[in-house]
Predict the structure.
Amino acid sequence: MNISRIAELRRSKGWTQERLAKESGITVRTIQRLEAGNDASLETISLVARALDVQVGDLFQSVQAPDFSQAVEGLETRTLADQERRDSISQGIMMVFRAIGILVTFGTVILATMGQFGWFIWLLIPIYWGAGKILLDAIMRLAVDPKLDAKYPLSVPSRGEDN
């Protein structure tokens, strides 16, 4: 049986088993089994580690299965690789959005200086950057993220300043 630190880590956050189950997306019964030292899939353990914001290996004090540490290292490597691929795709989408925004901005300036359009041509810039960003965020959350979740199950959406 594995000696689990999950209960200790959960309590240090001030969480109940129900809260950890909710945050990790698994059942309370699974949390109870993990805290008792029962085995679970690496994906389930990865979800718990992600919810607790620790590495998978930090969830256990000791492990009896000799192959487990190799599997954990492999899972952490796979998680990092999945996250890098997902972030690369998300950053590529943002680069396209910014490039189009730059073209819209320069195009608006050129059209405005030609004088053939009224003052309302200047509205294109804030409309693109404001409404376009909101629309892009919606598309990312509703369409792109679910596809990336399926393709890279060990990754999570990054919502930093780069995205």
Notes: The chain has six helices and two strands. Strands lie at 3-4, 60-62. The CA atoms of residues 99 and 105 lie 10 Å apart.
